[in-house]
Amino acid sequence: MKRYCILIFFFLFFSLSCGLSKATTTELENLVNSGITNKYFPGAQLLIATPDKILMEKNFGKYTYDADAKEVTGSSIYDIASVTKVIATTSAIMQLYENGRLNINDNVWLYIPEFANNGKEDIRISNLLLHNSGLKAWIPFYKTLTTRQQVLDEIYNMTPDYKTGTKFVYSDLNAVLLGLIVEKISEMSLDEYCRINIFEPLGMRSTTYLPKDNLKKLAVPTENDTYWRNRLLQGEVHDETAAMLNGVSGNAGLFSNADDLYRFMSMMLEKGKYYNPYTRGLKEEKFANADVIGFFTNKWETAAYNNSRGLGWDTKPEPTSYRAPCGEKFSDNSFGHTGYTGTSVWADADKNLIVIFLTNRVYPSRDNNGIREIRPEIHNMAVDLLNGN
Fold first, then answer.
1. In 10 A of CB 119, how many CB atoms?
2. I need a surface site. Which of 269, 291, 312, 343 has the fewest CB within 10 A?
3. How far is Cα 178 from Cα 180, in angstroms, rounded to an integer?
4. CA dihedral angle for residue 165, residue 168, residue 171, residue 174, rounded to 10 degrees
5. What CATH number has the domain spanning 24-387?
6. Where are the beta strands (DSSP E) in 207-341?
């Protein structure tokens, strides 16, 4: 009788656990589909996983709201906008730092001498990574300038808006400069450096700047640009500054998909370890040392202001009226980034959990922020899904 009761207990426990997992998956699907119904975005890729197990991977909706539009598949690629800052630029800086080719306390002018004027002489690489450099948040270069060099000259010659290191102002200009530093040190273009040192080693075959025809046809459109380029943007960078810089910039320009970004974020949670796709199962590779990854992804304490940033990465902020993109259930030991086009990557190092959520919320217009209602809930439900498995 005792043995029979134990069997019943385990049967009920197993059934309840499976029911929780299944229900959470259904709830996640309903939530994303509600975003499509409410026209927050036409389609999406969602991937929830640990480094060694995919808990949920699903594609939703279509490329646009048109009835005959292509359906989103796992091969579709998204303009990941500012997620470029961490996948490409910060990672390149991290590698150069680990290899002793730069120090984050170096002044920017050591690598870009033209920058040393108008009160910018003391800005360091760390200030660019922490977004406390003093530079403006954004400048609409496309309204007055026409060439890449004109944009760079304006950045080199600008005057800071505030005293370096005294407050946080998220700025695309910081990331532009970081990308230029990578190019100066490596003597490669930023896209070439990232392809050789990041994307190819990790097997990120669908991640690229300036997608060629075979990938361009898979690109999900972003905005119907009626204010500058006067065309639907598909397979070309949405961000105006990156476009002015010929599509390759430290602040934006990458195209990718959920599978490739999962490879990258898994490597980050595995403390830099990965298997080269060409020798998988035979040789373990090392992207970066665990202490260096922690150095970049952990929240930096600052004396001057309350900070929620790591070096290049965002971390979970203190609770405020503004909901964090990673929701409330991710631990304080989390890092990630969002992109203006409706993209995000987040990882919880305590829970060993990864969430990739890619949309084209700027289609047909950027005047749509409904994704902010959905994204935190997706991450909360992802934690529930993990706990139910």
1. 12
2. 291
3. 5
4. 30
5. 3.40.710.10
6. 224-225, 231-232, 255-256, 273-275, 284-286, 314-315, 334-339
Contact predicate 25/54, CB 8 Å: no
Q: Where does 248-288 show beta strands of DSSP type E?
A: 255-256, 273-275, 284-286
* Residue listed under structure tokens 């007055």: 144
User: pLDDT tens across 151-165, in order?
Assistant: 999 999 999 999 999
Q: What is the pTM of this model?
A: 0.93
Mean pLDDT in residue range 66-77: 98
- 8-state DSSP, 197: I
* Domain boundaries of the chain, sorted by first residue: 24-387
Bridging pattern class, strands 255-256 and 334-339: unpaired
Mean pLDDT of the 222-235 span: 97
Residue 178: CB atoms within 10 A of its CB come to: 26
For residue 85, what are the contacts with CB-CB under 8 A and spacing of at least 6? 175, 250, 251, 252, 312, 337
